[in-house]
Amino acid sequence: MNCFFCHVWRCLGTLLVVTMTVTVAVDLDCDPCIDRSAFLIRAILPTTTSRTILDTLRQTGRDMNVAIDIVQADADGNGMVQAIRVTDPNTVNALVVTAPNEAVAAAVEMYMLENPTVPVFGWGWGYEQLAAQSLGWITDHADEGGRMTAQELHARVQEQSNATLNSVALLHSRPLSEASTTRWDAFLEEQTTLGVVGGRYNVLSFPANNPEDSGMEQLTNVFRNCPYQAVVVADPFVLDDIIRVRAAENCDDRTLLAVFLDDTDAFSNPMVYQAITRQQVAFCLNGQVHLQVTLAALMAAVYVTTGKVVAMPIESSTYWSGPLLINARNVPSDTAASCEQSAFPVCSFFDQSSSSFQTGLETTTEDGTSGSVSTTCPCTERREIRIGGVLHGDTTDAFWDPVFAAARQVATDMHIQLDLVRYQPQVSMSLIYEQMAARIRNLCDSGVDGLFVTIPDDTVLAAVQRCHELRVPVVSVNSGQTASQALGLPHHIGQDEYSGGYGGAERLIAAGMKRGYCVDHAFGNTALQERCQGFRDAIAAHGGDVTFGSHISVPSDNQEQYVINVTEAVEADGGWEGVGLLGFGADPIPSLLRVLGEHPNVVAGTFDTSDVLFEAIRNGKVLFGIDQQPFLQGKMPVYLLAYMVYTQQALTNHVIQSGPSFVEEFPSDAQQICEANFFAVCPDRPEEDMTYIPNSLLALGYALFGMLALACLIAVTWTYKYREKWVVRISQPMFLDLVVFGCLVSGLSIVFMGFQTSYRKDRDDSGEFLDSDNPDIGKVDAGCMAVPWFYGLGFVITFSALFAKIHRVRLIYRAGLQMQRKQVTLADVIPVMAIMFAIEVAILLTWQIIAPLRWDREIIEEIDGFATVSVGSCEGGETGWRFYAGLVIFHVLCLFYALVLCFQTKDINSDFAESSFVSLAVVFMFQVLVLTVPISALVRDNTDVLYFVQATAVFLQNFTVLFLIFVPKMLRMSEDQRNPASRPSRTTSLRRQPRQSGSAHLNGRGTSWAGASLTDREDGTTSRQLRYSEDELSAIWEEGSRRSFDNIAERAPVKSVESGSSSERAPVVSGASGSSVRRSVRFSAVEKSDDVSVSSEFEAVANNQRHQLSPDEVESEWEELGFPSKDKAQMIFDLLQRSTDAERRKTILKGLLDESPTEYSTVPTVDPESLSPEGTGGKVAQPVDRGEQSQEAEPPEEVPPETLAATTNGGALSSKPTNVSPRAFSDHLKSGLSELGEDSFFL
After folding, report:
1. Which among 229, 257, 723, 1086 could disulfide-bond with 1014, CB atoms 3.0 to 4.6 Å apart, if both were Cys?
2. What are the CA-CA distances from residue 1208 to residues 1002, 1161, 1169 (Å)?
3. How far apart are CA 212 and CA 216, in angstroms?
4. Paired sense of beta strands 450-453 and 474-477, if any
5. Which secondary structure element, helix H or strand E, spans residue 1057, and what is its range?
6. What is the C-alpha separation between 1026 and 1085, in angstroms, rounded?
7. Do the domains spanning 164-287+322-342 and 385-478+632-650 agree at the CATH topology level?
8. What residues does each domain of the chain span?
9. Which contiguous run of DSSP H or E holds residue 201?
């Protein structure tokens, strides 16, 4: 393609840039920032594309925070063509392609014509057909690669054999790519250029991995007799076979090997580098495919988000990523090769489970055999890369605002450090230049990884030379293009001034210009001179009647002088007809507009842009503005330097053109906002882990509450259904309902534990907090305080019900120990419950008023100022913890006090052992509380575990209480329904209790009897009778003695009480020896009702106590209890113990304690045989009726126990009179039994 056609294609491409820039800019949204994640770029690739390229595209998408949709299709068939055709222009913002064949190239070209609003960028294949029409193309310079191959092989052959290179073969096993063909053609042209006439140049192919080994035979023929001085390998993946065959044919020293690395795959590169290191391959050409793909995708992302794109070079319409010639002097290390193969993994977005990327490489060992090595590429921590910038634009120069803003944005995108300082204005620019030079030297001496600078003066140039000597990559920006090239810097980024002037002249000519002028406000500036030169050359190229007037020098800030200078120059050439003016800067635009106002027929354009220019374009006064896009001058150097630092790859073009970009229409409002805020990007926030409680765990919590609610429903239903049954009535249904209600209320706290949201304030797309509240925050705040309210109230309701039961047991227990009459009603326990409830409400209410819990979110981890992990929780501020601690302490103290009471009454048994189960419930509540509080504090930052711990604790605490309180009753009810005989009858014997070891035992059977019976008499009265064991009565005596009662006998219970009788009974007491005895006290009472006999029984077991008394003290105690001696009491109980029949013992007791109002007890006539379980009579003889006896009568003579035991036909036995009033004692006991039977409830 000759220069004319290059120019035509360049002009078409420039027009396309202008048109599409305007179209895309309308759709921009920079208020308040650009949400780049909303943009979609589609990449259409052949199916043979390697993982390296796919990973490169994904990494670029992450860097720019845009979505890249990768579509792979068959290139040889119709796959890629069809994929291109069906791409919806309404869903994609840009297209990134490669064209491996003409069919795909034609499809891309047609798509661009049909969809001009979709920008197309490309890499690799197809650039000759598509680069001029696309907005950007990056590829390997294949022509240059061919020339470099010829030159390098020519030098190697001359060095080895002093011969001319004239026999070369191009060897391939797959169809040659476009790039390989272009390289070969350029190689042949270069051979001619080098003066080589004739020669042997063949393109040979062989089928790789042929099952019949025909491919290997053909390969062997290539090297047989070593006919070629050099063999260029176009398919690196068969290099292993080629090296082995060459060695077998003894051609290692006679045939050089060179390799064209794969243009679409870097996977085989490490194998080639290994061969170069072992001197099996002379060199290879690397097109740096990673850089091609990265920059193509990068340019597409920048364009769709800002409308900005670098200008393509006029001569090629593409930027070159290579070729890079690699030989033994610059071969990459194994690690570098592995990183290239792995697409240079970046730690920031790399798999955090591993700090490196593992790859398997196929290599060739020194003996020519295949081997496998494993090479590790550590990911690049780009946060450690430090890029410096030194620019001469001071803080008052608005031109540099987008430069600095863009550079900082790229540093944020790439996650690198940017050391960039903007200078304050000085009296003289030379002072700024000196500051720049000093800073450049300091940065390079401190080990900066890369540096971009402006070179406006030789003072700065010397400092840059110092950095270049230190091998610090330096890129020049904006000014100093010539100096940059002279120093050998890799890149200069700025506007192609010549192209800007050239394109400006073309547009003015098209508008009717016949005579053109350059209007220069900084006459002598080399950049402005290049602009004018391009302007003149364009006019000359057009020819005809268009001429160049002159290069006018004008001031930048003096309008009068500006107008005078321009007027004089134009009028000197013949007037204003057909005049065109091209201004060179933004500052003189008002002066230019004054000239145009005086001469409206003049056509004009200008370099640089401003709001004044935009208004002039809209009014039609100015045709265009040439934007050198300072935004890209800040953006591109940081990108390119970062890539150079961690990939060691760079473009081969020296100048990267940020402009010219022609602005010919008034920008949209959206475009103006973007220009004003320098295309501010919504922060590329890493995805924040809000540590929300997962739905599965929330479902578990709701399931636990559901189970608890179901258990409460079952319990309250069962209580209501059996409310008239003796099992329920004994346990007081009201307190059972309180337990159920408290458990349900406490369990409701599980529901509110799952309330959660993000932050208290709303956030915009940039992540900045707004003034408006999160709409869910009120609900979540309410849920925060609902947890302690529901749990606390539920706890106090449940606990107060349980505590009431324990408290009533304690009251009865203490009254029993003191032989006092005690009526325990609801009034005795309601105050305690009310006090606990009031304290609980007071704590919660104060908490609610002073420091209520509010939802707050704490950032745990962050990257670059953005939260990556945060934890939400309910917080009460600086004082909230005091109320939480107070509530916990109150609960602990309540439970601890209940535990003390449980321990004091731990040996009290009941017919249903309910007191034991209540104690167990309190113990479990205490354990759950003391364990949950510290565990919750330890896992506070782990919301999942915290929710699980707290929800499970609430569930277990309440469910266990329900289980321990209700399940034993349900089992007893079920047992009674299955076995009616087990129900209490109107005459009930309740307990047979084993005697403990160490107690005095009269009959040696190991059992003492205790219980109660209720018997209806024929006259309608009721007889309540109690029987006590020896230990029980002995315990009464011991407790009374220990408490020093004034009259212990008056507090001792009698053995028989008859309803409606006023008769008195002497107490029956059995003592024990002085050894340690486990004492027990039992009270039994029977309440008679119409349909059921309800037993209320209280048992207290005193702790093991040692009570040592002298014999005299023992006798004195017995006398105080109403017995003349211990022997008399033992004799009476001996009679009772020898009878195993309850009715017989009752008859004996009745005879012993007759109804006469005397202070004497009579002993009935007893048949000893009848006292034996084997007795045949089976009845007890009736007592002898001695008639009424006066109170002053002397008691009968005592009969020794042995005499009574030997008696066969009865006889009288009486005790000495007691010194207590049996009637007073009887009345006291009767009233106590009446209270127990009629009013007490039983736990």
Report:
1. 1086
2. 21, 21, 8
3. 9
4. parallel
5. strand 1056-1058
6. 8
7. yes
8. 36-122, 164-287+322-342, 385-478+632-650, 497-627, 695-977
9. strand 200-205
State how beta strands 1162-1163 and 1213-1214 pair: antiparallel
737: pLDDT strictly greater than 50: yes
This prediction has a pTM of 0.61
Residue tagged 């009935």 (tokens): 1164
Collapsed DSSP state (helix, strand, coil) of residue 1149: helix
Residues in contact with 1116: Cβ distance below 8 Å, sequence separation at least 6, in sequence order: none
Q: Which CATH class is domain 36-122?
A: alpha beta
Calpha distance 96→68 (Å, rounded):
9
Q: Which phi and psi (to 5°) does residue 242 adopt?
A: -65, -45
Amino acid identity of 269?
N
Exposure class string for 845-866: b at 16+ Cβ within 10 A, else e: eebeeebbbbbbbeeeeeeeeb
| SS3 state at 46 | strand
- 385-478+632-650 carries CATH number 3.40.50.2300: yes
- Beta strand pairing status for 515-520 and 579-583? parallel
Helices (H), 863-1009: 880-904, 914-938, 943-978
Q: Which residue has the tokens 């920031």?
A: 348
Per the CATH hierarchy, to which homologous superfamily does domain 497-627 belong?
Answer: Response regulator (3.40.50.2300)
What would the 3-class secondary structure string for 106-169 be? HHHHHHHHHCCCCCEEEECCCHHHHCCCCCEEEEECHHHHHHHHHHHHHHHHHHHHCCCCCEEE
Question: What pLDDT is attached to residue 499?
Answer: 87
Alpha carbons 613 and 604: distance in angstroms, whole number: 11
For 133-165, what is each residue's pLDDT tens digit? Answer: 899 999 999 999 999 999 999 999 998 888 899
**Cβ 622 vs Cβ 508: under 8 Å:** no
Does the pLDDT at position 1104 exceed 50? no
Burial class (CB in 10 A: 0-12, 13-18, 19+), 367: exposed
Q: Do residues 132 and 165 lie in contact, with contact meaning Cβ atoms separated by under 8 Å?
A: no
What are the pLDDT digits (tens) for 270-294?
889 999 999 999 999 999 999 999 9
DSSP helix/strand/coil, 262: coil
Amino acid at position 458, single letter: D
Task: Output the CA–CA distances (angstroms, integers) from residue 1219 to 352, 529, 750, 845, 1212, in the order listed.
Answer: 95, 141, 67, 62, 22
| Burial of residue 777 (number of CB atoms within 10 Å: 0-12, 13-18, 19+) | middle
Would you say domain 164-287+322-342 falls under CATH 3.40.50.2300?
Answer: yes
**What tokens appear for 140 in the block?**
């390997």
Element (H, E) at 220: helix 214-223
d(CA 481, CA 477): 8
Count the neighbouring beta carbons within 10 Å of the beta carbon of residue 1165.
Answer: 16
Cα 342 to Cα 377: distance, rounded to the nearest angstrom: 8
The SS3 assignment for 781 reads helix
Q: How far apart are CA 1054 and CA 1121, in angstroms?
A: 11
Distance CA 774, CA 689 (A): 18
CATH of 695-977, one of 1.25.40, 1.20.1070, 3.40.1350, 3.10.20: 1.20.1070
pLDDT bin (cut points 50, 70, 90) of residue 675 is confident
- In the prediction, which pLDDT does 632 show? 94
Query: Which CA distances in Å does 538 have to 499, 503, 516, 769, 988?
Result: 10, 8, 11, 54, 127
Q: Tokens 């490490």 appear where? A: 270
Spatial neighbors of 537 by CB under 8 A, at least 6 apart, are 498, 501, 502, 505
- The C-alpha atoms of residue 255 and residue 362 are separated, in whole angstroms, by 23
Amino acid symbol at 188: L
Torsion of CA 336, 338, 344, 348, to 10 degrees: -100
**Quick check: 538 and 518 in contact, CB under 8 A?**
no
Using an 8 Å Cβ cutoff, are 286 and 142 in contact?
A: no
**How many helices and strands, by DSSP H and E, does the chain display?**
38, 38
